[in-house]
Amino acid sequence: MYLAGADVAVLVEHFDADPIIAWLVGRGPGQWIAQPRHEQLSRRMGLWHIPSGPLPLLASDWRKGQEDWVTDPWRGWTERRAGADPTVPYFGPGHPGVYWLTLRAPASLNPGEQIGMSTVEWIGNRYRSIEEPAPATEAHWKALRRWMAKVARRIPRAGDVDGPHREVFAFPAALEAITSGAHRVSNPW
Question: How does strand 183-184 pair with strand 114-115?
């Protein structure tokens, strides 16, 4: 997604208004809690699709895998094993009930500044053969994409916004900046 200025608020408000999405918010080193709103945004944040059920609590020893479940994320929990990025909770290689939002959106564009590519990622049902599939989360994911298609316009990663290979959602403020000559990055890294 290309987001700039007010676009971030539009996306965050959508998640805040969704009664079946909760933000996974840090409240100290290795400590997390689910909240309906996220007041202080950071570059990368977790979103829990509530109907997907409890979240995995991994054992401190990686060889033991999952040790338990976080059955009530609203009460908070302390990780027993952190991932490579201590700014987000770790659930192993991918949990089908969690989305990841990464923001690379400038609040305002300075001359020569590029618009980064923000992302909402979902592992999908990749591990359905070894764990429970997530049909409710898959339906929610599709609804999220339909909402984005209504709010934003798909454009190519490079070149004219009307060119071929339109695959990235450009939200209104970012689209206006891009059509006015602002450069955009072609990869989310």
Answer: parallel
User: Which pLDDT band holds residue 145 (cuts at 50, 70, 90)?
Assistant: very high
| Contact partners, residue 151, CB within 8 Å, separation at least 6 | 10, 14, 171, 172
Please report, as a single letter, which amino acid is at residue 64. K
Run of H or E including 77 = strand 77-78
Other C-beta atoms closer than 10 Å to the C-beta of 95 total: 21
Picking from 57, 22, 50, the residue whose alpha carbon sits closest to that of residue 137 is 50
Q: How far apart are CA 148 and CA 17, in angstroms?
A: 15
Reported as a single tens digit per residue, the pLDDT across 131-141 is 565 788 999 99
Class of residue 49 by CB neighbours under 10 A (exposed 0-12, middle 13-18, buried 19+): buried
* Whole-number Å distance between alpha carbons of 109 and 180: 12
Domain boundaries, the chain: 7-184
DSSP structural state of residue 108: S
